Amino acid sequence: MKAMRSAFLTAALLLYAVALCGQSLSSQHVTFTPLTDSIAGTQVFAIERDSSGNIWVGHNRGASVYMGAWFDYDTSDGLPDNVVLSIACDDSGRVWFGTALGAVRFDGDTTWFDPSDSIDAHGGRAVYSISCTPNVTWFGTDGGVVSYKPSTLYPYSPYYGYTKDGTNDSLPADRIYGILAETEDTIWVATAEGLVRLVETRE
User: Fold this and answer.
1) pLDDT at res. 27
2) What does DSSP assign to residue 33?
3) Both 23 and 51 in a single domain?
4) Residues 142 and 126 in one domain
5) In sequence order, which ranges of the chain are alpha helices (DSSP H)?
């Protein structure tokens, strides 16, 4: 009899707990606010927040930033292409945009730095991902990984590319969908053929 009462009490407590959980979930209210009409684009590929708290959005008609109000940027401002696939903000407050036709850095006001041809020469044209460290910017392209290191800090070429070369000591694929910089010399790379960790060793 005691065992039956114990089992009944346990079942009752479980039912009570489930009821409480259900009540908690049913009382939760979620609001979705469409913002498509706020920006120029209809397809959004990237979103990032800079050090000032501004929200940058990359889409199929350029890029937009929210800083109390929305402002739009496109090729007439300095973007190499209006399809913005990736966005990254560096420690200096500058904003990098990866587009279907290269990458560009917005330094504020009207200053743009466009290394698209150099990135394409060492990797690919479309830039799907960007990751910044204080001294190195990494690009994931449709033709491999490219690093940019200012020549004022490094005595060799500021650009270096990594691609799939058919050996075990290379990228598993040239199409790069994501990059995460762990340090200036170590990055995690998401490719079309799997994940790889790339470590540069200076000699």
Assistant:
1) 73
2) -
3) no
4) yes
5) 2-26, 116-122
